[in-house]
Amino acid sequence: MSGAALAARFLFFNFQFLILGLTMLTFPNAKINLGLNITEKRPDGYHNLETIFYPIPIEDALEINPLHDGDGKYCLHQAGIEIAGEAENNLVVKAYKLLDELFDLPPVDIHLFKRIPSGAGLGGGSADAAFMLKLLNEKFNLGLSLDKLEEHAARLGADCAFFIRNAPTYAEGIGNIFSPVSLSLKGYQLWLVKPDIFVSTRDAFSQIKPRRPQRSLKETIQLPVKEWREYMMNDFEESVFPQFPAIGEIKEEMYRQGAVYASMSGSGSSVYGLFAADAVLPDIDFGKKAFSYKGRLNV
Ligand SMILES: C[C@](O)(CO)[C@H](O)COP(=O)(O)OP(=O)(O)OC[C@H]1O[C@@H](n2ccc(N)nc2=O)[C@H](O)[C@@H]1O
Ligand SMILES: Nc1ncnc2c1ncn2[C@@H]1O[C@H](COP(=O)(O)OP(=O)(O)OP(=O)(O)O)[C@@H](O)[C@H]1O
């Protein structure tokens, strides 16, 4: 069965339950990084950075139902893109366990349909974890505030807390200290390509020589989008592109096709281009196993 057909069946199944009020369904979305400056290495081995997280409409689907069979506390069913590893290492399960320790939650049956590619710099796992926290908070009336949810999310991954509010955000620290940014790219077309290359975030950080940019990203982001190309960098590109030239070539292709701005997202391997609302985006083959998305930004 094709991915689209599977997704349709999955969603139809859930829609029936949604109407009956028996289930809760949510759509964790990915993010891109607009600019990414790695500013210093910390004594704990992590890096301080500054970036702007921007939500994009590439989505997983995540639902929870009451679990009646067996005596476990959770059961995870997965469909769509495969994720390596055991269920207990899945971030949605980690999110459930985190709140279960605090609230002794009822057992849940979890369905996760993955569309967001992993190892892409799109924060797909972090999004699932954050949306799971929000879903459990709502379904079981836990009364957690957004600040508290962010605090819990930060324990699950560096950029997980962003997905609680899920709005354009300037992030500093290890990617966990937030301030809102006044920025809307609504109407721009987004073309995102993730080649069949897995970049380890840990390895990517280990190859970086941290430095402070001449001007803060907070200022750069206020420039017109067509000027970003000259002033806004993703520091990971300098080490990732020489190691994986195919990733850098995708960025060049985006500019050849008329992107107003193009960049790698996070530590890669996905690359996105922002295009004018009326631009015509061609079909380009980036390899059989490449993931490609074309759509419009809606925030
Ligand atoms: C690069 C970004 O995608 C930018 O959005 C994120 O900062 C990465 O966030 P993430 O994938 O959630 O990262 P984590 O899973 O928490 O960390 C993976 C590894 O990256 C390194 N790491 C991560 C974040 C950070 N600020 N400094 C680091 O040095 C650490 O070695 C860590 O063990
Ligand atoms: N629900 C989940 N979805 C995706 N990956 C998960 C999930 N739970 C655990 N993982 C693990 O997390 C790893 C990172 O996945 P993720 O989708 O967050 O990609 P990423 O591109 O590294 O994101 P980031 O932007 O945070 O760097 C995967 O290799 C996978 O083993």
TrEMBL record:
Active site: 31, 159
Catalytic activity: 4-CDP-2-C-methyl-D-erythritol + ATP = 4-CDP-2-C-methyl-D-erythritol 2-phosphate + ADP + H(+)
Xref: Pfam families: GHMP_kinases_C, GHMP_kinases_N
Alphabetical list of SUPFAM superfamilies matching this protein: GHMP Kinase, C-terminal domain, Ribosomal protein S5 domain 2-like
GO molecular function: kinase activity
The enzyme's E.C. designation: 2.7.1.148
Pathway(s) annotated for this protein in UniProt: Isoprenoid biosynthesis; isopentenyl diphosphate biosynthesis via DXP pathway; isopentenyl diphosphate from 1-deoxy-D-xylulose 5-phosphate: step 3/6
Keyword Nucleotide-binding among record annotations: yes
Domain of life the protein comes from: Bacteria
Membrane-spanning intervals of the chain: 6-27
Domain GHMP kinase N-terminal: 90-164
InterPro entries linked to this entry: GHMP_kinase_C_dom, GHMP_kinase_C_sf, GHMP_kinase_N_dom, IspE, Ribosomal_Su5_D2-typ_SF, Ribsml_uS5_D2-typ_fold_subgr
Binding, ATP: 117-127
Record-annotated GHMP kinase C-terminal domain positions: 226-279
Keywords annotated in UniProt: ATP-binding, Isoprene biosynthesis, Kinase, Membrane, Nucleotide-binding, Transferase, Transmembrane, Transmembrane helix
Stated role: Catalyzes the phosphorylation of the position 2 hydroxy group of 4-diphosphocytidyl-2C-methyl-D-erythritol.
Family per similarity comment: Belongs to the GHMP kinase family. IspE subfamily.
PANTHER family, alphabetized: 4-DIPHOSPHOCYTIDYL-2-C-METHYL-D-ERYTHRITOL KINASE, CHLOROPLASTIC (PTHR43527)
Record protein name field: 4-diphosphocytidyl-2-C-methyl-D-erythritol kinase
Organism of this sequence: Bacteroides clarus YIT 12056
Species lineage: Bacteria, Pseudomonadati, Bacteroidota, Bacteroidia, Bacteroidales
Gene: ispE
